[in-house]
Each structure stands twice: as structure tokens, then as C-alpha cells.
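P.,

For your records, the input lines for the assembly:
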Amino acid sequence: MTAGLGQAWLVGLMSGLLSGCAAVNALKPPAVVDFVRSIDNTTSITTEDYEMLDEITGLVFQQIRDIDPQIYPQLQLSSRTNFIEEIRQRTESGFGPDVIVTDSETALALYRLRLVDPIQLSEKNRQDTPQNLLDLVTAKDGSLVARPVNQFVQLACFNKDRLPAAPRTLQEMKQSSSEATFGMAIQLKDLFWTAEAFDAGPALKAAMDSPSPTATHRATVTDWLRWLVESSYQQNVRFFNNQRNLRQGLIKGELDWITCWSNNLKVLKETMGETLGVTALPKGPNQNRAAMTQLEVWALGRNSSPLQRRKALVMLDFITKPWAQKTYSLATKRAMPVSQMAAKVVASKIPGGNEALLNYFSGEHSANKMRVKARIFRDPVRYDTISDALLNTIYDIQSPEQGAEQILQGLKEKR
Amino acid sequence: MLQDLNREMVTWLGYLQRGSVLLQLAIVVSTVLLEKRSRWTRRLKSELLSSLAALIAPVLLILLGAAIKALGFPGGLVQYLAMLWLLWRLFKPINLLIEQRYPNLPVNELDRMLFRPLLLIFTVLSFFHMLGSRESLSIIEIGSVFGVTLTVGKLFTALTITYLIVAYAQRPAALVAWMGGYYIGLKPQGQRALEVILTYSLIGIGVVGVAYYIGINGTALVAVAGGLSVGIGFGIKEIISNFISSLWLLFEGSVRPGEILMINGDPCTVRKLGLRATQLRRGRDGAELLIPNQNFFTQEAESYTAEETSRRDVVMVGAAYHHEPSRVIAVLEEVARQHDKVLRYPPPQAFTVDFAESSINYKLLFWVRNPLEAFGVGSDLRQAIWTAFEQNGIGIPFPQRQVYSMEWPPSKEQTHRLGSSTHQLQPEADIDSASETP
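C-alpha cells returned:
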């Protein structure tokens, strides 16, 4: 009887303590974590942009809140134009975001301006992410400036009504240009696949590492630029300023084939329906070209309070877990996860996924290519050198030979 | 809409969890309070110096913000708030300097209607930009107007443009009207009418432009115009009628500021010709009258200033029967001529108007330049006539009555005396004649 009474007291005390703890938990202040995501929009943000993003992030945020109800993630969108300047102004005033969702090049640029804090990643957490992806967000001083979360795959989008079969090689593309109109964006990140197609990577790497580039390297780069110039001479090959213009051209029927990214397929599918065809980019002389990808990363802003920073890290940890990576990739079907375990599971479901999967497991050769790209893309001077050379050559301001020399010298000077 | 707004507001609350933001706010607030408590700037005698000295605190705060940033901490909010403070305080010394140099410029009006509203718009835009919420806020949908989705951004822009148009449409309109007067000889009242018409035309065009900017198409505007026609027909026809009347009156120039009109027998000065009503000041008691314009348009109005401003007034006076009328008339006309404000031409004239019970009545007519002075001049003339009659021995007769006490019931004698046909009512023997005093 006495023992029973004692047990009842104990149970009562325990429930009181638990309910007290619950009440204390309820009194905890909400931790508002401000997310800013850059979007590839040259004009201004629209309601549709928010609606589309809510579909993608709504599920993630809801599940994070299920795990930690104290977190209140808030998402804002910002167009890529003036994105860095906007983040700078906000950070200098104390209103900088807690987490910045952007691409690897922008994250590196933000780090150079001391607008993001480096991330300390344990060896265990690094294991599931390919090193070449981490290289893309590693600054020159060795700091990891952001955490890779997704990879968007570059693809070829075409109108099936106008072009029943998309060209599989650059040669076929040249031949088809009399029947269909092709569009490409004149940005290095959008045109780098052509360099890969001509296997210009080793030449670019040599320019960065060797005292002087060899004739073979010079010839490779010249061949690449010559192909671009010849393409620009084609009646039905057009160069546009950015991806957005390319997409609009395809939707309006002005273009029949464009390069596109997996994260933009939803817009195209919604507007073009069954006429949209998606396939891999054409191959060039280099038949083993790896899939071109663009990394989406999460970086930590500098103005967070200690509580906001802790919660931001919780979210960062959550989103890179293999389970979360697999779930959200399958839910949105717009990007490859950076988690190797998740990538294997979802590759067949993501457009261009199987080709992109090779980048995870094809060994040192593929990793080297990715590192060359990383070294060029994370260095604004090198990036600008190649961009300028491409523009000047495509617009006939200089010959392909001069363009090649400009690229190789530019890369060497910054070595 | 509420969900979107809530999202932004939760984000702003998140900023208040940051020590850097709170510290910056504390710095600004404490500086403002300290500056309020120290009154040394008020001891300066010159207003200009005092207003310039008031700039020191915001400038120091800007420098402090820069120093915080140089140390690698967030100081932008301090700088931003200090800059707004500085801009606000700059208005006063700038206004004083402009007033000193160009006294005729409408500085206060510019300050009130242009500079301060512009600062307000700048503040709203820059503040939300600093928070990173400007774009997100601007796309929040408020509702639908004629099938067009109205967002916060569109509404803000539309209201700003509309304010600027309404506030400043008068300036270019006045310039064009002035040019009309200068180059093609438009009369002042025509210029004023042209200015009003141009002002409202500009406002109309501006409002239609804003409607197009929002996205309301021509069909919707036609529908609005149709609705307005019905509204005008039933409800607001009086307003439109008054508006049209005001334009007509402006062109005609019959009712313009300074005009003197008789309203219910009282001379009133027109103060302002508005688009709905005309504002007048009644001379008698200084009351302000607001009379709908259509009254002037549809009813007769008595004006003393339509063509010329002089007004004729009259003084009535009686003189005893035994004075020769021509002599009285001469005295009256001479009195009028002596008054400064009585016009020489048309000359003052006196007339014999009535053989009354106790006097011969005369009317002295005279003209004055300012109709509102007629009342005062009449008073002066009456005093002068009394003096002149006194000097000339002319009497002003007036009826006198005498009251007799009577018995009740009347005595036989009294009844006989009063009721007899041969003895009509006569004064009693011991009382003097009841005839009027000469």
C-alpha cells in the first residue's frame, strides 16, 4: 500500500517535471532564421517565383520545424543582379541573412568580401560529399565558404515538334542548324561545356600550373574557340545574354534547341508540355565529357545571433543528411543531391542524373576536371579573363588564335 | 496577403534578436536623447547658427557609424538613421539661406510639398531595401481592381505619382497661363481660367496614366466613365455644375477676387473663387460666406465692380416748411462736395422728394469710389448736414405728441366736449397748442 502510494507520488512528480519542462520549452523565444536565395532573374522577383520556391522549400522547412519547433525559417528571394551588393549593404547594417542559398561562385565572391563566415566541417561530415564538390567552395586560404547541398545538371532542352531528334554531337548540331534554330547563353558558366567537349580542361590546367603552355594545349584551346566562332557564323545559331532569355526564346518558338539547367525544367514543362524534349548536351571530340553541373550551396551570413547561428547549423546539418537529400531530390526532381549515398538512389529519376553520377565515382580523372573548373570559377580574375576572351572571339573582335593566347596568358599570369 | 506580410514581419522580428541591431538602435536613441537634453544650441542668438549647430549631432553619429564599420562591426544602421536625421535637420538652414537670398521664392511651400514628402518616400524605400524586404513587400497582392491584381509596390508607386501630379500640376499650368498672357495677351481672368483648366487636365491625364500603369485597360476606364456619367446624373451633378460654373465665371471674369457683390442687400467682397463655391467676406460683420458657384451662374447678382467700382448712395433729410427748398438744396450739395470721398463727377445732387406731414423731405445723392465706403461716407454726410443746418438756421422738424390724462368714466362735460360734432378734439384751454414745433 505504502509502496503503491510512493510510486504514485513518483509518477506524479515525474509528470509534473515533464509538464514543467514542456512549459519552459514553450517559453523559449523563436529563433528566426532568415534565408536569402539568389534566383536567376534579371528583372525583378515575381509572385510566381515565390510560389515556385514555396513548393520546393515548404516541405524542407516544415520537416525541420517538426524536429525543432523553435526554428522559424523565413525565406526571401533576391535577383542575382546586384545580389552581392545587396548582401553587403544588409550585412554592414546588421540585417544580413542567416543563411545564403546561392551558387558556389557567388559564395566564393561573398567570402572574399567577408560577407559570409567559413564553415567548420568534421571529417565525418565530409565523407559523404565528393571532395571535388567541396573544392568548388574552398577558398584559396583553404576555408570552406559554404556547404554544397545540390547540383543542377546542364542539359539540352528542345522543341520535339520542330526537332524530332536532338543532336548528339557537335557535328550533328552543325548539320542540323539549317533546319532548326539553336541558342546558347554567352556566359562562361553556360558555355564551359563546349570547353569540356573539346577537352580543353588539361590545357587550362597546364596554363595555370606549367611555366608555358605547349603547342598542343594552344591548339586545343584554339579549336574550341574556332568552333564557337564558326557556330556564331551559322545562320541558325544564336547567342543570348543569359539563360532566362534562352528559355523565353524556346517558349515563344524563336528557338528550337537551347542549353538549360535541371532546376529550370519545371517552368519549361509547365509552358511547353509534351513538346519539351530533354537530353544530354552534344559531345565533341572528347567522347568522355563529364556532365556539367552547377553547385547550389548554403553559406552562413555574418550577422546571426548565437541562437540563430546554432539553428542555422542545425538546418545545414539536416539538409545534408542522406535521407533528406534523397527525399527532397525525389520530391522536386530538379537537382542531384551532393550526398553520394543519396545520389546513387535518385540518379535515374533526375534529368541528366545518370550522366552526372559519373562525376561522383569516376575517379581521379573526373575529379581533376572538376578541380580545374573550380580553380577557374572561384578566381574572379581568371573567370573574367576567359569570359572576355570568349566574348571578344565570338564577336569577331579577335581571332581564335588571339583568344586562345589571351586565355592561356591570363591564366598563367594569375598562377 | 496577410500570410506574406506575416512572413516579412517575422523576419524583421528576427533582426531584433541580434545584439548588433539592438546596440545600434541604442546608440542612435541615446544620442538623440542626449542631444535633446543639452540645450546649448538654443542659446545661440542667430536662428541660422542655431539650425547649423543642430547638424553637429547627426554628423557625429554618421562618423561614429563609419568608425564602427571600420572596426569590422555592423554600423550601417547607425549611419542610415543618422543620415535621415541629418537630412531632416538640413531643411531648416537651407530654407533660411534661401529665404535670405531669394525672399520671393515660396520656400515653405516647396519644403512642405516637395522636399519633406520626397524624404518620406526615400525613407520608406531605403529602409525596406536595407531590411532586404523591398522586393518581397512590393509583390504582396492586396486585391483585384477591374481584373488587375494590385500589389503593394504598384499601389505605392501609383499613390506617389498621383500625389506628385496633384501637388505640382498647378506649376506648369500656371507657367503656360502666364505665357498665354505674355505672348497672346490673355486677360488675367482668362489666364486664371486657363490655369485651372490646364491643372485639372494634367491631373486627369496623370490619373489615367497611373491607371494604365497599374494595368487597368481602356475598356475598364470606359466602364468607370460610364459609371461616373450615371453618378453625375444622379448624385454629383451639383458638384459638376459648380465646377463648370466656376470655369465659366473665371473666363467671364464677372466674379473674381476683389469684386464687390450685393448678397441679400449687403455688400460683400469676393475673397476666393473656388471650384465648388465662392468665398466672400460680408462688409457688415466680416462674416465669411461660401456660396455655390452655380448661384452666380443661374441667378442674378448685383455687382458694384463689374465695369466700374464707384457706387451711388443716398442720404434722406427733412427741413422745416418755412425754409426755401432751393436754399436747402444748395446747402446739401455744398456739404456733399466738401467731403473728400464724395466724387466730383458725377456731382452730388440734392432733390426735393416729398411734402411730408411735418417736413419737406430732401434726398442727397452722391457717388463714392469704393462701394464699401458708402456707408461710412453717408454717416459723415449726415453729421455734416446737421452742422451746416445749424449754421444756416435750418431746422429739422420732427413730430411731437402730447398725452392728456382722461377720467374714467368720463364726465358729462368731457363727453360732450369730445363727442360733439361742433366741438372736435381740441386741446384744453389751459394747455398750449399741440401743433408741431417749427
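Two observations worth noting. The first strand of chain A starts at residue 31 and ends at 39. Confidence is low (pLDDT under 50) at residues 1-11, 17-25 of chain A.

Regards
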